[in-house]
Specification:
96 residues; 6 helices; globular
Length: 96
């Protein structure tokens, strides 16, 4: 499952870059380390929501969009980050 974790990390990093720009995304990653998402996706979402409130929805939707491009699954806007990641994992394991 290591390969999936790499894809997830890349999708999160790309999403942060797209939402905030590279410099600000770097600062966001300092406060909300992407490696947290690899250990506990629900906690990562909770931290995002604690900092960005409703703006976290934009970040989560970007992550879903970027994951779906890499793994080729259909996500729906408004899904929780945990739902997106579980769906992505399911499709990833079917492709492997």
């Amino acid at each position: 499952m290591r390969e999936f974790e790499e894809i997830l990390k890349e999708a999160i990093d790309l999403s942060l870059d797209e939402v905030f720009g590279k410099d600000t995304a770097k600062a966001v990653r300092f406060y909300v380390d992407t490696s947290i998402a690899l250990k506990d996706i629900s906690y990562y979402e909770k931290v995002l929501r604690g900092i960005f409130l409703d703006g976290a929805d934009l970040i989560i939707d970007k992550i879903g969009k970027n994951l779906s491009k890499r793994i080729n699954f259909e996500w729906k806007k408004g899904m929780s980050l945990k739902e997106v990641v579980e769906l992505a994992k399911k499709f990833f394991s079917q492709q492997s």
